[in-house]
Amino acid sequence: VFTHNMSSFHDRHHTLPSLLLLALCTLFLILTLCPSPISSIQIKSLSRTISLQTHVPRERISLILHNDENQAIASFTLGNLSEFQEDTADKAKSIEQQATNSDFQSSLGFITAKINNIAQTVHLTSAPQQKLEIHFNEAIPMRESRQVEISLVHLNRLKPKPARIKQSDNQKVVFETNALLSFPHIEAKIESQSVTFILASSAVESFTKEIRGVQAKRRGNQISYGPFKNLLANEKIIPGSDRIMLHFQNNHPFVRIEKLTRLLEVSMWGNLAVEEQYVVRHSGAELEGGFSRLDYTKGNPSTTAPASFRSLTAKLPSIHAFDVYYRDRIGNISTSTCAPSSDGRSLEVEIQPRYPMMGGWKSTFTVGYNVPLSEFLQREGSNYVLNYTFGTSFPEAPIDDYELKILIPEGSKNIRLEVDPSARVPHPVKERIEVFKTYLDTTGRPMFVATKKAVTPELSQDTFALRFEFSRTSVLHEPLLVIGALFTICIISMLYVRFDVKIAKTPTQINRDQQSRAHELVEQYVALQLERDEEYERLEKAFSSMRRTNTSSHFSSEQERVEKKREKVAQRVVSIQEQLRAFKCVDVLSKVAAIEQKEEEKMGKISLLASMQKRAIEGDKKVNEAEIEKLERQYDACTEDINGSLETLV
After folding, report:
1. Is residue 409 within 8 Å of residue 470, measured between CB atoms?
2. What's the first-to-final CA gap in the chain, in angstroms?
3. Of 359, 435, 539, 598, whose CB has the highest number of CB atoms within 10 Å?
4. Which candidate, 215, 243, 247, 242, places its Cα nearest to that of 231?
5. Cis bond leading into 128, ω under 30°?
6. How many whole angstroms separate alpha carbon 441 and alpha carbon 478?
7. pTM of this prediction?
8. Which domains does the chain have, with CATH numbers?
9. What is the 3-state secondary structure (H, E, C) of 548-567?
10. What distances in angstroms separate CA 125 from CA 130, 215, 301, 370, one per listed residue?
């Protein structure tokens, strides 16, 4: 192509600058395709310690780096981070294939790097070739060494095996990782490399016995591999044989917060209200079969349900927190206690869900409290800074989906969140500002919203700074609004009482109002009659029972109760009749009087029936069954007459 282009240029008599431009483009392509230079930095030793004592694995990598170059080194790359990723689905995948896994951040949640206990700047490159770059605060001079401590927090790495267990079974989990780390950009050998696991218990089902001819060492709940001597730093990891698998017992509470919405409401009158809505899940082995409350309470839950947990402890950020509440959808839950922490700087709240948390079970609840605003808000002129903890009040619980809402006073502007990312690699935080309208608001209050995925316990305890501008005179906005509203009401009341706004009603309107009121009274009377019918039905059932059982005690008590109820209803009927008489509803009054007469007759019939039946029970031979049946027919006739009159009345 180059030769062809050159001939074309000669043919077209192009100038010398065109040739130079083409040469520069060719040189740029060559430099772009060239691999990055190999670093001459040496790793004297590499020691890894992985703690599996809880449900969140934590790894500490100790490196001794030696600068063998002729200039100071300002940064170091930890290589492809595929070594830290989960690889249980397909053991045959190569390291290059693992590095293209887009779900990296679901397994590696938090990274820090320190030299002499001083945090260094860390940076995570973008996928697919994700690498961890450490930028030193002070460059490593040539021919000198530094010890670097790197801390990693893993999420979703402990897998229950078996995945389902019975209530009384212990929980067993599996953890897998590579025994060695590879550094493709370093050619020198690593003098010594080792890895140590600290398990949750000494009850180990199985573990990898040997890696590259080096036998594993086990002592109590610790298992060590190595040291591996003089291995090349860029040596390729063998996916199968260099993999460590541990299967052990871990009954630590597998508390996982699937969803957390935290609302902070800032009141410039001196209060900070906090409300946290939780969806908590036991992420361990799921419960197989039903839950037995009887078996659970027979003994200590650590033996009857060792893999479950019964309570959670929330650590509130202020010892002066007050109005603490704990509730769910049903209502307030009283099984909670508050006490100062051991250091006396915070308040610990022990809460108990309504039921023990077994594997796979969820619990939804809300925790809220108030704290003095002066402890968390600093003022710099018209600028304010709110400092508060970022994540959950439960220090050992990772969060899958986190949403932070901060409601600040109306009139605030220039709102921004500051979280120092230099000393760690958290996941990115998505931010937005919404408008929330509530009482006494005009334009609405700004609400800062931050969402985040996969929040580790370490990141939850970090603090953030929310900066905003707010004028001090804006505090008077709501009081002045209330005063103005009250003043306006007083003025309107004064004007209202000084003007006669009454308009006399016409005879047609008065007649319509009377008819409407009479209709309401008729509806009230029908409702009272329906109450009487219910009482008669109970009397009829009692009378039938008396005839069937030849006992009159039940009927007598029912009759006495009905008589008292009838007296109350009669008083209300008299009141209705008086009001109808005032409205001169003569036709309605006559119909109501006829119904009342029939009602008295109906009550007399059933009383007479009861009297005759009682005499029959007592052995009176003069009582004739035919007379009882005749009275029953008369009673039914009265009922039909009353119902017909009611229909006519309506």
Report:
1. yes
2. 105
3. 359
4. 242
5. yes
6. 8
7. 0.65
8. 2-33 (no CATH), 42-249 (2.60.40), 257-477 (2.60.40.1730), 507-649 (no CATH)
9. HHCCCHHHHHHHHHHHHHHH
10. 5, 36, 46, 41
